[in-house]
Design goal:
Layout: H1 3-6, H2 8-25, H3 30-49, H4 55-78, H5 80-90, H6 97-104, H7 106-119, E1 123-126, E2 129-132, H8 136-152
Antiparallel strand pairs: 1-2
Helix pairs in contact: 2-3, 2-4, 3-4
């Protein structure tokens, strides 16, 4: 494996990031832009690897990079601490404790998450109840559970 060949998953990641950022700035929803970026980044990896025996290893490495990038983006979008600091930075006069609690109380957090999931079509509201719409989050949750079973031998790090 040459040096340039060893960097193939990194080149895939660079393509991933460039396309994802461009798609997000063009107005594509975040999750869709992440999927589009990942797909675009896999093209050079598959193309250069071809049908060689290195393809599974190259794709595994690229997949790991893509997974890390997804969670890097996810931290910035969904982590309450990061959102809190961002909102404090953007507020000119700061926020009172009451203002923070109003924005970040459990009911408000749940309401915001439900709104985000319904806006993305991942939840559907019918007959006064919520149902799974597009199952992307469910698929991710199942993959994470399988990975936890494989790595730590339990469905959750909190299981006894």
């Amino acid at each position: 494996m040459t040096v340039s060949r060893a960097l193939l998953p990194v080149w895939g990641l660079i393509a991933n990031v460039v396309l994802q950022v461009a798609a997000a700035r063009a107005g594509m929803p975040l999750l869709r832009s992440v999927f589009a970026g990942f797909a675009a980044g896999s093209v050079p990896v598959i193309w250069v690897s071809g049908l060689s025996p290195a393809l599974p290893g190259d794709m595994l490495a690229y997949g790991c990079f893509g997974y890390c990038y997804f969670h890097f983006l996810n931290l910035g979008e969904t982590a309450r601490r990061i959102r809190l600091v961002r909102e404090l930075f953007l507020s000119r006069g700061g926020l009172s404790e009451e203002g923070l609690l109003a924005r970040y109380g459990s009911a408000e957090i749940l309401s915001a998450r439900i709104k985000r999931l319904t806006d993305n079509g991942q939840l559907v509201f019918r007959g006064g109840r919520y149902f799974i719409g597009r199952p992307a989050v469910l698929v991710m949750a199942r993959i994470m559970t399988a990975m936890k079973l494989a790595v730590i031998g339990r469905k959750s790090e909190f299981d006894a």
